[in-house]
Structures are given as C-alpha cells and as structure tokens.
UniProtKB/TrEMBL annotation:
It holds the Pfam family Pyridoxal_deC. Coiled coil: none annotated. It comes from Parahaliea mediterranea. It comes from the Bacteria. GO terms for molecular function: carboxy-lyase activity; pyridoxal phosphate binding; transaminase activity. Gene3D superfamilies: 3.90.1150.170, Aspartate Aminotransferase, domain 1, Type I PLP-dependent aspartate aminotransferase-like (Major domain). PANTHER family: GROUP II PYRIDOXAL-5-PHOSPHATE DECARBOXYLASE, MIP05841P. The lineage of its organism: Bacteria, Pseudomonadati, Pseudomonadota, Gammaproteobacteria, Cellvibrionales. This is Aminotransferase class I/II-fold pyridoxal phosphate-dependent enzyme. Belongs to the group II decarboxylase family. GO terms for biological process: amino acid metabolic process; carboxylic acid metabolic process.
Length: 469
C-alpha cells in the first residue's frame, strides 16, 4: 500500500525522462508552460474572441520537414502558444457567445495536467484502481447533482456525441432495434449515432417541434400508435434537456409517462443543459430530467472543464452487459466488489483519466461556487433579453431566455444581413455570436454561460451588432 517503494537494483538510476531530458530542464520548461497559460488567462479579455487563420499561412509557420534533430523548445512553445492556439475560437473569452462556449476553470486544468503527468490509465481495475475510483466518485457526484436514482452507473467519454452513441449501442444490444423518436431540434450527432449503429431512415422518426421548439406530445403518441398498427416496433424516445439552438427543454415528465406506458426507453440529451440542475431556477426548467433511463451531459461545456469530458449516466448493468470484453471470466472476478473495469463500460479500452479534472475542480471550488457561476449565466441571458426588449423598434425576441440562451432578430433585416453582421462582429475581434435557423428564418443567438461575462460585455456586444454594416 502507500509508502511501499520498489527496490531499484541500479542505485545510480536518476534519469527523469524516458527520452533523456534533464530534470532541471523539465522544471524550467514546465514552469514556462504554467506562466504562458496563466499570462494568457489574465489577458484573455484583450484577445479577439475568435481568430480563424489562412490554411497556407498556418502551414508555413507550423509545418516544415520532419525535425530529425532537436529544435529549440522555447521557440516551439512560442509557436504553439502564439500561432497554433491563438487561431481558434476562445471559448473562455468573456465575449464568446457562439455555439457553446468552453469556459474552463484553472482548478480543472490542473487536474488534467496532473493526470497527464502521471500518464494515468483508467482501463481496468487491476491496471488503474486509483484512477478508476476517481471516475466512480465523480460519476456518482454528477449523478447526485442531476438527481438520478442511486443505482445508476456511468462512464466518462469524449463528449455528448460519444456518450449518446454509447447509450444507443447499449440499448440496441439489450433491447434490439426499433423506431426512435426525436425532433428537428435534436442535436445532429444523435441521428448520426443511430445511423452508424444501423438504424434505418424509417426507424429514425423526426417529429417537427411545436411553436416553442419542444417535442409535441400528442403527435408523439399518434406516431407510436401508428407505427404499432403498421407492425413496426417503437424502441426509444429521445428528449433534449436544453437544445443547442434555443435552450428549450422537452416536456420530460410527459415523455417519461409515455415511455412508461409504452415500455419504451427514455434517453435524455442534457449535454448542454444538464448543469442547469445546480441552479434553483434551472432545476425548475429541467423537471423530469431525473426520469431518464439514460442521460448525457457535457462537463466540458457548462461545468467549467477543459476538453474533453462527456458523461453518460444509465440504468445499472446496461453498459457491462453490452460491452464486457471478457464476459466469461471477468463477471465472477469483479461482481459486487466495487472493482470496475471501465474498458467494459464503453467502446474505449486504453483511456486517460477524465475524472481527475472534475474531482480536483469540484473539491477546489466547491459545488456552491459552481452553482453561483451557473446562476450568473442564467441571469445574463435574462438580462440580454431585457436589454433587447427595451428597444422593441430595433429588436425582436424570437425565443426568450432559456437555460442561458436567447435568440433574437434585427427588425427589417433579412437572413443574409443577419449572417453578415455575425461575420463582421467576429472579424472585429470584439465578440463572437452565432446565427441559427429557426422555422426557416436566420436569427442571432447568444449563449451566456461564461462566469466572467459582465453586463457591459453583453450590452456592448448587442450595441455593436446593431451598429455594424
Ligand atoms: C454539444 C452538444 C452535443 C454534442 O456534444 P459533443 O461534446 O460536442 O460531442 C449533443 N447534444 C447537445 C444538446 C449539445 O449541445
């Protein structure tokens, strides 16, 4: 146990690095990396919110012949920090409101760095019991925060896309194939996952969303009944808890009741909106989320984690029954001992630790700090709505603030002009927002989940959007 040291027969062994870097140089470059990152974080609000490069210019700076001999690491670090990593969306910039921001926290970054430094592996219990325990602990913390039943299990994966794919593969393995119900607001990674698993086009039943972009409950009931009459086999309903487009939550209690009555699987995609559960008002919007049979959330979006971190929570037994690589002997060895082989809970075998960052950041800041930060994001979207509503001759609110997202349009401006203003705003560097298509019309969309965003940032962005042309 702790304190045991392996005996090294070569007493003189002192190499720190497998490829020969001296310990002093390791410290010097390691500290340099910390300084580069912290300097950038301090100064991030002065950077452009997004920067997209030209392919040939980036290649000219970052490419070249294979370096057969060592090159100056300081210069290489500079190229990474000043060329490679500056040309991207700055998801943690206080005026990055596009797509879904990635406002990662330093406590989480440190956990990722440490896990990488130890080359932590979370594949089998025997090969990584410490990292596996971290993952079990973190998954159970997430489960509690979302309010799911205590026997639910989970796995950390690269993100929402992979988490839903894993859930669908398990449902298919345990229950067979059938018709799946979703809406035109379901994230496109979900129908893609169904397609790669072999679901046919007619088995992927996309319902047009209602006026409020929610799944229409009556139309769902009719579709299920119609398919049963036609001899098809309804299998699963996919609800979204916070759509990427508008932050809308499907009527989860109603979907759960239908799934119960019809014996269908209920998958809830809370990749974006799940962390809203930490806030009292968000929890209200997300009621029914705890009724999911499988649920996906993305800590790398609204839980302040660096990429990548997605999480699947699911009814017990589903994952191991579907993915166990050595079912014949592993079952007896590990059953009931609390020793989990994470390679048997998904489609990855060799796995880094994605739990260390969550574990360290939740301990470092405490859940109350996360709660405040999420409340701040929810409030900002409401503030944006209020600011827009104060000028009704200029702005039209298309979808009111929901879970940190608000969609709006400039009166008198067509689709092209909306897109053009989004482009000009990005090019100015001041801020970055999205345009999206809703019911055939291009509109502006703000996602306000960065705890560093101020009211001034918000109003400055909206004012510039109006002034550009
Ligand atoms: C982002 C998102 C996804 C996809 O998640 P990735 O982490 O990008 O793979 C799925 N569903 C929703 C609602 C999302 O917002």
């Amino acid at each position: 146990m702790a304190g045991i040291k392996a005996e090294d027969t070569r007493a003189s062994r002192s190499e720190a690095d497998t490829l020969g870097m001296e310990a002093e140089e390791m410290r010097r470059l390691g500290h340099r990396v910390v300084d580069i990152v912290v300097d950038r974080l301090i100064n991030r609000a002065g950077e452009p919110a997004i920067l997209t490069g030209e392919a040939d210019e980036l290649l000219a700076q970052l490419g070249g012949p294979i370096p057969n001999q060592p090159l100056d690491p300081e210069e290489s670090l500079r190229l990474l920090a000043e060329v490679a990593f500056t040309h991207q969306q700055r998801g943690d910039h206080p005026r990055y409101f596009a797509r879904v921001p990635g406002p990662s926290s330093f406590g989480a970054i440190l956990g990722d760095w440490l896990g990488t430094g130890f080359n932590a592996i979370t594949a089998s219990w025997a090969g990584g019991s410490g990292p596996a325990t971290l993952e079990l602990v973190v998954i159970d913390w997430l489960r509690q925060l979302l309010g799911l039943p205590s026997d639910y299990e989970g796995v950390l994966v690269s993100g929402g896309s992979h988490a839903s794919l894993t859930a669908f593969a398990a449902v298919q393995a345990q229950r067979g194939t059938g018709t799946v119900y979703l809406t035109d607001q379901t994230h496109s990674s979900l129908p893609r996952a169904l397609k790669v698993l072999g679901f046919s086009e007619s088995q992927i039943h996309i319902l047009p969303s209602d006026e409020q972009f929610r799944m229409p409950v009556q139309a769902l009931r009719e579709a299920i009944a119609g398919h049963r009459r036609a001899g098809a086999r309804p299998l699963m309903v996919i609800g979204t808890a916070g759509t990427t487009n508008t932050g809308t939550v499907d009527p989860l209690p109603e979907l759960a009741a239908i799934c119960e009555a019809e014996e269908l699987w209920l998958h809830v995609d809370a990749a974006y909106g799940g962390p809203g559960c930490l806030s009292a008002s968000g929890r209200e919007d997300l009621k029914g989320i705890e009724l999911a049979h499988s649920l996906v959330l993305d800590p790398h979006k609204w839980l302040f984690q660096p990429y990548d971190a997605g999480c699947l929570l699911i009814r017990p037994g589903m994952l191991e029954r579907s993915f166990d690589m050595n079912p014949e002997y592993l079952r007896d060895v590990t059953a009931g001992t609390g020793e989990v082989d994470f390679r048997n809970r998904g489609l990855e075998l060799t796995r880094r630790t994605r739990a260390a960052k969550l574990w360290l950041s939740l301990r470092t800041y405490g859940v109350e700090r996360f709660r405040e930060a999420i409340d701040h994001g929810l409030n900002l979207a409401r503030e944006a709505q209020k600011y827009l509503a104060a000028n009704p001759r200029r702005w039209e609110i298309i979808v009111p603030a929901q879970l940190g997202i608000v969609c709006f349009a400039l009166r008198g401006a067509g689709d092209d002009e909306h897109e053009e203003r989004v482009r000009l705003l990005s090019e100015s560097g001041y801020a970055c927002i999205s345009s999206t298509r809703l019911k055939g019309k291009t509109v502006f969309r703000l996602c306000t989940i960065n705890p560093l965003t101020s009211t001034d940032d918000l109003e400055g962005t909206i004012d510039r959007l109006a002034a550009l042309s």
